[in-house]
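2024-03-11 09:14:02 DEBUG pipeline.ingest accepted 1 chain
2024-03-11 09:14:02 DEBUG pipeline.ingest length=325
2024-03-11 09:14:03 DEBUG pipeline.predict start
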Amino acid sequence: PDRPPGHHFMKLGRLISSALLLCFLTACQKAFPVSADLLPMNFSQPEVKSGLSSYYNDFSVWSSCISGGSVTIMDGYRVNYDLSGWSYTEGEGTEGQELKFWNGSADQFRFHAGAPVSAVSQISESSLTLNLSATDKLDGVALYSRPYMVRRTDPLYGNTVNLRFRYANARLNLSFTCESDKDLIISDITLIPASSYATSGTLRIDYDWNLSEAVSGDLEISLRSSEPMVFPDVKVPGSSDSSYETSSPWYVLPDAGVTGRWKVRLVIDGIQHQAEFTIDKAWEPGKSYIYKFQYTDKANLMFIGTDTELFVGENLVDGGEHNFS
């Protein structure tokens, strides 16, 4: 039959494209065949419960193999913690998840993750979306990992994957100093917002593998509130120059809608006091904001400043990150 002009070239082009695609897929698949001669791909196996596992028993991970292009290895695999460490082939939600292996055929492997699994609403090679809520419980916060990238020539290639996590929530607390010779109890502490603030929503984290950076993206707010935040009582010893934070901070959503005049209202020695202060910048993920107040010897309550630092809590390494090792 008659063939259109260039038919043979078109057919040859299709064959070449198919061959290239097959080579690409084969190269990446060779990076994780089931073979006793290859090292299994594992997350760190601590002898004692530490790092992220102190708060959560699971996380969701994305991994891809780069060999001329990108092929997904773990498409949101669930990784569970038990007494033997972290596993993505055993435990709840791991059905159909195969053990993966390292091998020198791939140029690069990429990993990133979100925790806990219940907070992850979407995960792909380029982004992660987390469900966030304002809470006064540390085990209610969500976390995201830094991008973890290993090239074939790196010493870490083939070793245990050691992810580092950061908080997606911001941390908010109040601290007090008092000019008094006697012990004081500060009670009925409430923080009154300038306007409604986000109490529930989703935060997208974008991953730039060229820069090896994780950057917070859009916050989609599903619920707002104008209700005051309530804090527990604070005891301040007499004749103390130290500042004392409340024992139960709030973990809030990074929100550009929080700017304006806020108020703190509290009771000292049976007398109600109030002070106002301005928040002029949005809260950022992984940051701690401590709003400081002073009770003077003239029975006045004054705002004296804000301490802003990385949100570094228990079991975090320098830089405000959870570490699996």
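2024-03-11 09:14:41 DEBUG pipeline.report Confidence is low (pLDDT under 50) at residues 1-27, 30-37.
2024-03-11 09:14:41 DEBUG pipeline.predict end
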